[in-house]
Hints:
The first copy, chain A, has 305 residues and is of the alpha/beta class. Chain A has helices spanning 4-15, 18-25, 29-43, 59-86, 106-117, 130-138, 201-213, 227-235, 280-296, 300-304; strands spanning 48-50, 55-57, 91-97, 121-127, 144-148, 156-171, 192-193, 220-222, 240-244, 255-259, 266-274.
Amino acid sequence: MLPRRIRYFIAVAEEEHFGRAASRLRIAQPALSRQVRLLETELGFDLFERLPRGVRLTPAGQVMLTEMQALEVQAQAGVGRARLAAEGRHGTLRLGLIESVAWQGLVPDALREYRQRVPDVDVSLSTMPTAPQLERLRQRQLDAAILYNPLEVEDLVSIRLASIPIVLAMPEGCPLLDLPEIRVRDLTGYPLIGFQRLASPKLFDDLNAALVRAGGEPTFISDPMNEAEMLALVSMGSGLGLANAMQVWRPPHGVCFAPVADLNVTQELHVLHRRDEDSPVLAEFLAVLGEQARAVGPEPLFDAV
Amino acid sequence: MLPRRIRYFIAVAEEEHFGRAASRLRIAQPALSRQVRLLETELGFDLFERLPRGVRLTPAGQVMLTEMQALEVQAQAGVGRARLAAEGRHGTLRLGLIESVAWQGLVPDALREYRQRVPDVDVSLSTMPTAPQLERLRQRQLDAAILYNPLEVEDLVSIRLASIPIVLAMPEGCPLLDLPEIRVRDLTGYPLIGFQRLASPKLFDDLNAALVRAGGEPTFISDPMNEAEMLALVSMGSGLGLANAMQVWRPPHGVCFAPVADLNVTQELHVLHRRDEDSPVLAEFLAVLGEQARAVGPEPLFDAV
DNA sequence: TTGAATTGATGCCAAAATGGTATTGGTCGC
DNA sequence: GCGACCAATACCATTTTGGCATCAATTCAA
């Protein structure tokens, strides 16, 4: 990865002998002689002293040799790093995700496995809501996004990773906790804390449909901006909430979770990336994520609750 | 000073556009296209993503760009240093010298001036006796040697720098110090400390001849190995010594120096180098030495005593 | 002292690499 | 759909590089 003439110079300088250098380079001696002469002409100063018998490096030649040998090493290393990047074993993976998925389970497991497999890749994590993730993904500020229920992402590739069930969030001491099994009907009479449809339209609609179908009569008493706010209200005893099962791993103080037997609503965890993105760094990450998703199974968190 | 294809790659990567890169490189676009393709084939991985409109660097290409830009800088710098060396403004000057000449006067002045003039040259000083200096000079372990009265150096170039007078070394309180002028005859009766002829044959012979000619009757009482040992004996009050005037600048404790008016013996300070040595680093150093020698004059140290 | 051996340089031609012009194929914007 | 844009391809010219034979200078040995 150095110019031919420089490689030739290094060979002659190391051998201090045109003949030996030529055979080492597998070219004829006159050709080598000429290339070195041309290099000297190009540089404007001599690299070798021509002695009656053999050659010797000039002081400038000695400096040149040292410098060019160092350059060769750096060139090799540089190409090596580029090759690692081409193989996905070096580079940067910019990953956006919903905060709660990073706590436990599939995503952190996959990240741990990925870092172990390709330790030279820098993984940059940014937790943010769905909309900003999609925006940054399209703007090439992220390489992949992990979020729930993606909508209007025909321009992106979306891979389903897992179904995360919806669980009931109750304040401590809630009578429902004593039931062997909670069903939708049991919720009748309790105030329910909802959320703005805008925050997650599909979940909102799924929940409403499921609650009605199961014979419940949901009474939503407020609509906080996000899941954390909702859980805060639950914790204050304002009512019950329906939350993503991932919250189980970091229950807010004074909040208990339990599955609702006949509420068959899930959030679909997806990983998304640009359709034109073919980086091996990303490909490897997607592969690891896929393996982990298959290993964990389709509904990993129900049992854990 | 990088392979053509690498330079081309850098241009295209920086422009992210083959047409612009081609005109910047003053070649036609198809030629550039082909060279980049060939580079990719050679490397075994792609550097650019070909989009319907324009190109974009792959992750490997981005790494490659960074690496190759750094390489270009290092290559430039390396050739620059070699060029400096060719102009004598960079490199290494390995100088051997007799310890005492480095203390004051011509040699340190010249070194100071030289370092100021060509600050990029590393000067390596080794103080050693005459014989090892000549040996190492011939073995190319030194570039120049500064010593007294060189003999049998027909294979080397020898340039006379200065005549250093011989002065009388006396212990403190010596009665001779009260004389307005010391002459050889005054030394009669004092024990004289000599030195082994082998250490400096010419000085030994010169001194003997001069002492006899001036009517003295030298009585040598011992023959130490070198000047430092001799001065130590003088300091102990064992007798008087005849020393190189350079010693004046670092008088051993309890030793006083004075010229001997009618002892017209000098040591000739020479700089020597190999006959085949044409390094600009050396040439510049010799020039500085020559200037300093002319500036200081033929017998600089007599006045200083 | 002479002749063989060694070593790098030179002359000449062949091969390979590189460059230029014309053109194609694909996509975008109007 | 038409023109503009952009890179790729085809084909030929030019430049660079390589090989072979030979030379020139010097060394070494007989």
